[in-house]
């Protein structure tokens, strides 16, 4: 729903640009190979880049657990957009920044969101990419900053 409704979260922390990449069991395989129908067919649904909330990167059940990769807290539909390498790499950057703040302030991941979000935002804006020609992944899309809703920069593309 958040992707369809273009919901912008105050704790936007990394962007994803991959399509909604959903895989389904192939009906032909199901009839020929009932034990292994999941030679999948896929449907790519084009979406515009969107920012993913920091809250997806820590466990709601285990106080001191960060996650970065295909195990983050998203629905199976959203996982189709965030599971690719560039996006998971950016997750790792954000988790590293947040972990440094956890250590600095002696707090758990949830309290970074609740008490230190502006400081995390500042770290994300600086980024970790070198400035000598290697892209800064937190600011890779200068026309679509993560602190503004998608509609702000889509206007130039949708006529």
Please characterize this protein's 3D structure.
With 159 residues, this protein is of the alpha+beta class. The protein has one domain (2-127). 38% of the residues lie in helices and 13% in strands. The chain has helices at residues 2-5, 27-32, 76-82, 85-105, 109-115, 117-126, 150-154, and strands at 12-16, 20-25, 40-45, 50-53. The protein is elongated, with a radius of gyration of 18 Å.
* Structure annotation, total helices: 7
Largest sheet geometry: 2 strands, antiparallel
The main sheet orders its strands as 1-4
Shape from CA axes?
A: elongated
| Low-confidence parts | 138-159
- Average the pLDDT over all residues and give the rounded result: 76
The tally of structural domains comes to 1
What distance lies between the first and last C-alpha atoms, to the nearest angstrom?
Answer: 24 Å
In which range does the helix fraction lie? 25-40%
User: Could you spell the SSE succession in H and E letters?
Assistant: HEEHEEHHHHH
**Could you tell me the radius of gyration in angstroms?**
18 Å
Number of strands: 4
- What oligomeric arrangement do these chains adopt? single chain
Structural class: alpha+beta
**Strand residues, percent:** 5-15%
